[in-house]
Amino acid sequence: MVLLHVALLTHRKIPSPLSFYSKDDVAVGSLVYVTLRKEEILGIVVQRSTLAEHKGDIRTQTFQLKKIKKDDVVGHIPENILTQYVQAAEVQAIPYSLFFDAVIPESLKKNPEYIQNALTYRHQGEVEKTISYLESSSEERVVQYKSIVRDILAKKKSIHIIAPTVERVLKLASYIGKGIQYKVVVLHGEITKKQMQEAITKIYTEKEYLCVCSTPHFAHITPKTIELTIVDQESHPNYYSFDTPSVDYVSLFKATWGMSQTKTLFADTILRIESYRDLEEKKYSREFSIHSRFSHHVPIELCTFEKDALFSTLTTPVRETIAKMKLSAHAFLYVARKGVHTSIQCSDCGTVVLCAQCTKPTTIQSLSNNTRGLRCLYCGHKEALQQDQEIICSTCGSWKIKGYGITTRIVAEEVEKIFPNKDVFVLDGDVSEKVFKKTIHTWKESGGILIGTDSVLPYLEQKLAVAAIISCDSWLSMPDIDTHRRLVQVLEPILEYSHNAVFVQTRIPEDPLFEICKNENITDYIKTELKERKELTHVPYTTFVLLRKDVSFTKKEADSLVELFPACKPHIYKVHNDIRVLLRITQERFIEDTGLQRRLQGLYPHIIVEVNPQTLFSR
Questions:
Q1: Taking the chain, what is the end-to-end CA distance rounded to the nearest angstrom?
Q2: For residue 483, is pLDDT > 90?
Q3: SS (H, E, C) 291-326
Q4: Checking phi first, is residue 298 left (phi over 0); if not, alpha (psi -120 to 50) or beta?
Q5: Which helix (H) or strand (E) holds 597?
Q6: Is the pLDDT of residue 93 over 70?
Q7: Beta bridge partners of 374
Q8: What's the CA gap between 272 and 232, in Å, rounded?
Q9: What is the pLDDT of residues 502-528, one digit of tens each?
Q10: pLDDT at 292 over 70
Q11: pLDDT digit string (tens) for 175-204?
C-alpha cells in the first residue's frame, strides 16, 4: 500500500495536500477524483510514499484515511513536468493546492482532459527550448508582434501572447487581428462564461492554427500546435496575482516554460531588474539589440516646488502649460495617492488620527454618494463624516486637525479653481468600474484634464498636450530600493503618449535617478541599479522572504520566528504599528534548500509568506 498526497483543485482554498491511501499503482502526476464533504473534486497527486514511512503518524490520527482506487484516476501529467510546477511552488513558498489554483483557471477545473492539456502542451513542441528577451517601446513591440504572428501562422503553428491587463489584451488582439480575426482568440476575466467556453473549445478541439491573447491567469490555455509564447510588459505589477499568497507569474513562466519544448519571449520597454541579471550572467539571450534610450524623443522637465510661496499642488510651469492648452486637448496629471488626504494629524499636539478598528493611521477619502469619511487603507474600515462634522483630537481635544499629502482629490479641487472653464476628470480606486470606463471614454472623446493614479496608465492612447507627474516624493522618501524602478515604470507610458515635455514635480531634484531619466539613458539606469543592488545584497542578488500577518505579529511571535530561521539573517521591523519579519538568503541557497522552502510553505495560512515582494513597506 502507498500513501498519496493530493493537491485539490477547489475554490475552498485548502492549502496543504490531503493524504489518501491506495492499494493500486497510482503514480505521481495522476489526476484523481476524491470525495470531500459529499462533493467530487479533482486533484493532482504531488507526492507518494509508503505507509511504513508514516506508520507512527497514522496511528495517532483521530480519523480514517480515505482510499483512492484505480477507477478514480482520470488522467496523468508526466512526473518530469509536474516536478517543474512543484519546484516553482516551493521556490515561491506557496502551498501546492493554492499554487495550482492560481495556475489552472476555474473554467478548466472540472475537466481532467483540459487540465492535462494546460500543463503539458508546451512540453510537446518540436523546437529547441529557449527563453529570450525583447526591449523596445510599446508601439514598436505591437508592430513586431504583428509580423511574428503572421510568420508563425504561415508555418501552421500557433502563438500565445500574454498581457497584464484586459485593456492591453484587447488592444493587441484588435491590432494583430486585422484581416485574420477568425484566427485570434481572446481570454480574460471579463468575458462571459459562454464566451469563455466557446474560446476553450476552439483552442482544444478545432484543428486550427491560432493566435491566443490572454491575461496571465489564462496563460496555460493554449493550442497543441503552440510554438511561441510572448509575455508582454513583463515588469508590470499585474503579473503578481491578487490572491494571498501572491503568485509571481513571470517567475512561474521562467521556471516551467524554460524547460519546455517551445520558445518564450519576455518583452517590455524596460525589463524586470531580475531579467537584466539573467542577461548580465548570459543565462538567456536577447532577441533584439538592447536600446539605450527611452526612444520617445520627449524631454523630461523637473519642476521644484517653490519653498517661500504659498503651497500649491501645481508648479508654475505646469499651470502655465495647462492654461495654454485647447479645450479639446488632452492633459493627464499623474498622482501617486488617491483620496482626499493620505494622513491626518493634530496641529496642536501632533497626534496622528488612527483607525478605530486596527489602530493604523487612517485617511480621508470620498465614500459612496459623494460623502467624505475616514477610510483605513490597511483593514478597509470606513467611517462616514457628516457634511460639517469636525474631527476632534483624541489626545488633547483640539479641533485643529489638518490633512497632509498630495492626492487625486486635492489636486482636482485646485485645478477646478484655477481652470473653471476646463473639464476635469478624476479616476482612482474610489470609483466603480462602470464609472471608470465611462469617464475614460468621455475624456478620450471630448478632451480635458484627467487626474488619476496607476489605474489610468493602461488606458492612455491619445497624444497628450500636457503630461505631468504631480507627486512622486512619497516614494523616493521611503527607504525602499524598488522606488526607483516604480518611478521609471510610471514615467515610461506617460513619455510614450506625450506630445510635449513631461513635467516631474519634486522637492528633491538632486536625486541621481532624475538625471538619468532626463538624459533618457536606460543603460545607465540599469548599470546603476544592478551595481547598487549588488553592493547592498538586494534582489536579484539575494532572496528576501517577508513574513507578516493580516493583524500584526506580537513581539513574542516575531521573536519565535527569528529563532525558527536563525541562518536566514532575520530582521524585525515595523510598518506603522505592524510588526514584520524579513529573512535574507542567498539566491543559490534558497533554490537548493527544499527543506527551508517547505517550512515556509507550512506557515500558511497562519502567516503570510512573500518571496521577493514588490515592496517591503506596503500596508
A1: 49
A2: no
A3: CCECCCCCCEEEEECCCCCCCCCCCHHHHHHHHHCC
A4: beta
A5: helix 594-601
A6: yes
A7: 364, 383
A8: 12
A9: 999 988 888 777 877 777 677 777 888
A10: no
A11: 999 989 999 999 999 999 999 999 999 999
Q: Which of 162, 490, 451 is nearest to 294 (CA)?
A: 490
Which residue in 515, 483, 491 sits closest to 298, CA to CA?
Answer: 491
Q: What is the pLDDT of residue 461?
A: 78
If pLDDT is split at 50, 70 and 90, which confidence band does 390 have?
A: low
How many CB atoms neighbour CB 544 within 10 A?
17
Query: Which residue, 340, 379, 345, is CA-closest to 359?
Result: 379
Helix (H) or strand (E) holding 31: strand 30-36
Of the CA atoms within 13 Å of residue 170, those in its CB half-sphere come to 10
DSSP conformational letter for 20: E
Say which amino acid occupies 270.
I
Q: In this predicted structure, what is the pLDDT of residue 385?
A: 73
Number of H helices, E strands in the chain: 19, 28
Residue 423 has a CB neighbour count (10 Å cut-off) of: 16
Number of neighbours of residue 52 by Cβ within 10 angstroms: 9
Residue 404, all three cell numbers: 497632509
Cell 543559490 found at: 588
What gap in Å lies between CA 393 and CA 261, rounded to an integer? 64
AA identity, residue 305: F
Alpha-carbon distances, residue 519 vs 271, 293, 511, 539 (angstroms): 19, 8, 14, 26
Q: Is the peptide bond before 605 cis (omega within 30 degrees of 0)?
A: yes
Position 315 pLDDT exceeds 80: yes
Three-state DSSP class for 158? Answer: strand
C-alpha distance from residue 482 to each of 184, 317, 478, 479, 615 (Å): 37, 29, 10, 9, 7
Question: Which three three-digit cell numbers place residue 41?
Answer: 473534486
Compute the distance between CA of residue 531 and CA of residue 538 in angstroms, rounded to an integer.
10
Contacts of 95 (CB under 8 A, 6+ apart): 15, 16, 89, 245, 601, 604
The beta-carbon contacts of 361-367 under 8 Å, at least 24 apart in sequence, are: 361/576, 363/339, 364/339, 364/340, 364/403, 365/338, 365/339, 365/340, 365/409, 365/430, 366/339, 366/340, 366/409, 366/430
Angle at 325 between CA 320 and CA 326, to 5 degrees: 150
Q: Cα dist. 86→21, 129, 513, 586, 603 in Å?
A: 21, 20, 39, 21, 17
With b for 16 or more beta-carbon neighbours within 10 A and e for fewer, the 548-583 pattern comes to bbeebbeeeebeebbeebeebebeeeebeebbbbbb
Comparing CA positions, the residue from 32, 38, 12 lying closest to residue 20 is 32
Q: What whole-number distance in Å separates Cα of residue 450 and Cα of residue 452?
A: 6
Mean pLDDT of 18-43: 90
**Using one digit for the tens of pLDDT, what is the confidence trace for 246-281?**
899 999 999 999 878 899 999 988 889 899 998 888
* In the chain, % of residues over pLDDT 70: 90
In angstroms, rounded to a whole number, what is the distance separating the alpha carbons of residues 235 and 491? 13
